[in-house]
MMPL family transporter (Dactylosporangium cerinum), 708 residues
Amino acid sequence: MFVAVCFVGGNMAGTVEASNSDQAIGESGRADVIVNDGKFDNPATESVLITPLSGQLDRGAADKAAADVAAAMKALPEVASVSDPLPSHDGGALLVRVTMSGDPETAQERVGKLLDATAGVQKAHPELRVEETGGESIGQAMDDTLGKDFQRAEFLSLPVTFAILIVAFGALIAAGVPVLLALMSVAAALGLSTLASHLVPSTDTTASVILLIGMAVGVDYSLFYLRREREERAKGRNHLDAVEIAAETSGHAVVVSGIAVTIAMAGLFLAGDVVFSSLAVGSILVVLVSVIGSLTVLPALLSKLGRWIDRPRVPVLWRLTRPRAAAEGQSRVWSFILRPALRKPAITLTVSVLALLALAAPALTMRLSFPGMEDLPRTTPAMQAYDRLVKAYPSNGTVHTVAVRVPAGQLDATKAALAELANRAAADPLFAPLDEAPDIEVSADGTVAVLDVATPFAGRSEQAKESLTRLREVMVPQTVGKVAGTDAAVGGFVGADVDYADHVKHKLPLVVGFVLVLTFLVMAFTFRSVVVAVTSIGLNLLSAGASYGLVVLIFQGTWAEGILGFKSMDAVVSWLPLFLFVVLFGLSMDYHVFVVSRIREAVKQGMSTRDAVAHGITGSAGVVTSAAIVMVAVFSIFATLSTVDMKQLGVGLAAAILLDATIIRAVVLPSLMTMLGNANWWAPRFMRRREVPPAPPAHERELVGAGR
């Protein structure tokens, strides 16, 4: 009922999308706001490029092809106007610009007719290359490519998750329950997020993040419960008692984990960016719904199903995974894995931490940038045509947008200043020469003027950034800046790239500090231990740092291009470090809270810290391994997508979860807790409960004192 009400109610309320002004960051954001305030009529435009297949361009044949292009386009209702053919500076190409009619927001849906017309002209002129490119045709091609990518990802993620859970439980119902509850949480959160968008505007990435986070935590929380309930039944308890014990232990871990994940996601609000704010809202909602479901629906379902949860059984897998009366901690594999950490904790800790720090070291050279046109897959005809267009007409490539608020009575002076700016830029090698007279757009009310200034260099190149600096610090102040009362800003891709990278670098320490402080408080009061809180934060920082290092190592170089199928952008996507940190910090807490809860539980029962560590880690190994395999598998699917930002996100998340579930939980955590011994549970007097963990045996105190 709750899920249905949320989903239906949310759809009825509708979604409030973030506007350009909501997403304005830095000077480039201010330029976007100025342009939007001008309310320009910006119709969609396409470019038809005519070039030779080889050798020199036959101008007569090219003119005939251009005339055929104009005739074919003018016959279409989707076309408003067609320009005269424009030759390139070297005479090697001919360009025909086509302005589309109708709403530019829906132009991409109608560009197919133009592409068909271009293909018809190409067929009639096989001696030439006649091809179309532009924002709409590129958008359509990329939507087709990315749409197939995401369909494949969605098609694979659920079956892969279900298959892994079948292997983990050996029973179909037990495998289906986590997937069902995760999907219900996602559905409810999607509905709630549309309601929340009336307070915090939503972006087009919110739904994807809800699905990503919802499947991860939903499956995790259900796994915690199911594993513990099965374990208690294997000890001879009836199913109701087993469910109650699971609720008291794993349920408590779920609540703490949910709070920790919520705190991590809430840190995104401090970024001062509507994109991160909408992601925070979606993530927090799906986590809270998952926690509520784990505390209500899941135990009720387990109580109702009883032993039917283990039906129908998969014959071979059931024998391997069925719960046994013997403690799970007796696994020979995990006993072998933990042996170095338990016997030589100081040496094991030092070696493992140094290895993780070495893996994190490349993060010190991290460079941030937006993906640009040069990073899109070149497998589509529209992108191949774009490359030839920019080569023949450099002014159609990377463009800086100079936006000016014009004070009353200063329109002529402003236009003259912008014309002077365009001519100065055309004479500067950092900028592209003019293909035609400067096109200064003025709003209908005369209060906004806009000029595009092109550079022949790729958007992320140092030359493009240098041209931005020269515009902002020299050319604009010396021209437009001399017109009294004007308010000018330089935007465009390069400006947005530079401004957003600076924004993330400025906000990241604030977000990290917020998450660390609040996570420390939650962990300290949950486990009544300052040491556990500090070590929890330290281990998660190690995991995040190693993940950053891997992303830099893979994507800022070229050695992995052939393996993962990408073209290196020599940088990390600007939004990734901040988003990756909060997601990893939140998801890592799932495992950490669950494992440390098991260790704490064993200590309360009178075990020595060393024995408790062995018992807690081996006892939780099955659920942590299963949950980690699910998340690594799902995140790895994202690494197969076409765009470099999705590849970086998939690799970063998968690598961090893998490191967290293996090196951190199986090596660093046990060696650290074994070395600290009873000091793990130290806390100020006001935080202590009545029950204090018993002092370790004499032999353990001697080992700790000897630093072994």
